[in-house]
Design brief:
Strands 2-1-3 form a three-stranded parallel β-sheet, sandwiched between helices. The termini are far apart. It has a domain of 96 residues: 3-Layer(aba) Sandwich (D-Maltodextrin-Binding Protein, domain 2). By secondary structure, the chain is mostly helical. It is elongated.
Length: 187
């Protein structure tokens, strides 16, 4: 007995099952995870400053570049030159991709210098990028005896910062303890 309809039906059912399996295999688990979700963007500084502005511009656009297009929710978490936000991200924030932070560029070096209470290992952060490309400059006043890099290494001088963990404090600590010592001592 000839049954073309039954073979055709099996072929169609088999084809639908294959398409269904392929559809699941082609699904993007990242897009599925972030679809209809939000990511908290912790900003290590108060409202209105440079880092806050960078973070809010980032929040407006980065969700469009993450599969699933999550909503980015900026939240200011000022304290200790953004050290509070870095410690929070490392110790308490969810580790599932729903928490990111912006904090001072010098905080990657902070555990090496040891001038404040860091609770994080900077090597374990996933560094995404920088909102700017800045060059830092150190200058001395006209009455200073420190005029060159060699002078800085041999003549005692005073430097100041604005708070533990802030860029000026980190840079001051590096100058105070000789950058060369930190870069090449294996510390």
């Amino acid at each position: 007995m000839y049954r073309p309809a039954a073979s055709c039906l099996c072929g169609i059912v088999g084809g639908i099952a294959l398409v269904s399996v392929m559809d699941r295999a082609m699904a993007d688990p990242v897009a599925d995870f972030y679809h209809n979700r939000s990511i908290n963007l912790y900003i290590g500084y108060s409202v209105g400053g440079g880092y806050d502005t960078y973070a809010r511009v980032l929040a407006e656009h980065i969700g469009k570049h993450i599969p699933g297009n999550p909503t980015i929710v900026p939240q200011n978490m000022p304290g200790a030159g953004s050290l509070r936000a870095a410690n929070f991200l490392y110790k308490a924030a969810p580790k599932d991709g729903t928490a990111i932070a912006t904090f001072g560029r010098g905080l990657a070096m902070e555990p090496l210098i040891g001038s404040s209470q860091t609770s994080y290992d900077a090597r374990k952060f996933w560094w995404l990028g920088s909102g700017s490309d800045e060059v830092s400059v150190c200058g001395t006043g006209p009455g200073s005896k420190v005029r060159t890099w060699s002078d800085m290494q041999t003549i005692p001088f005073t430097v100041a910062g604005e708070g533990s963990g802030s860029d000026p404090d980190i840079f001051a600590a590096m100058l105070k303890h000789d950058v060369h010592q930190f870069l090449f001592s294996g510390r």
